[in-house]
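Collaborator request log, item 7. Partner lab (contact: R.S.) asked for a structural prediction of TIGR01457 family HAD-type hydrolase to inform their binding assays.
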Amino acid sequence: MHRYKAVCLDLDGTVYKGQEVIKDAQLFIRKLQKAGTEPYYITNNSSLTAEQFTAKLSAMGISTSPDRIMTSAIAAAKYCKEKYEGASVMMIGEEGLEAALKFEDIALTTTNPDIVVVGIDRHISYEKLSKVSLAIQGGARFIATNKDVALPTEDGLVPGNGSFVKLLETTTGIEALTVGKPESHMLHFIQEKGYRKDEMIMIGDNYDTDIQAGIRFGIDTIYVEGGVTSADSVLKKQDQPTFMYKTMSDWHA
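Returned to partner:
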């Protein structure tokens, strides 16, 4: 455990499920903190701000700070700032994405954008989809916070951001650039805080997002059972995670 200075944890399915903390993860995080390592929390959820995620974790008995949160919204904003300095953005999304773009001093517009950024929006409308569709066809770059097509709820699966991104891709004939997992942009921005790749590890329950992000970035990974991807499915994959555990408590120094 002491090898890693940047321990990157997926949230939903790894640290908590919905509004309920996973006890083994909570104990693992406290063990890390006691040893002097503050983990990072990485999520494709673009709807909340870093401060809101911090408050959510605090309510679950996990102490952290906003600078340890990396969302797909934060990564999208950083990507726009890094690659397209001075560009204007038209967005579909919620408070988390708007706050991230404003934090990077990116100009938001409702007309003639240089970039369209699409994040989860639970108040999506035909008008919003039409406006960004026309903007993309008019030459705006098309960026998606993530392409998770479905979100799990207590009642079953509901449309995720990827469903709306797919609709826009079908309409415009243009594929969106994705910044969320399984792409490795979020890990890249964490590395920029001053870590070597051999000092980083990505932990998650979803092979196709969490583990793939780590593999693509070239860092060690831990797959934890009990979430999205079954252990049997992971064992059949060509690219294996560095470690596999039933729970976080099985990882020892």
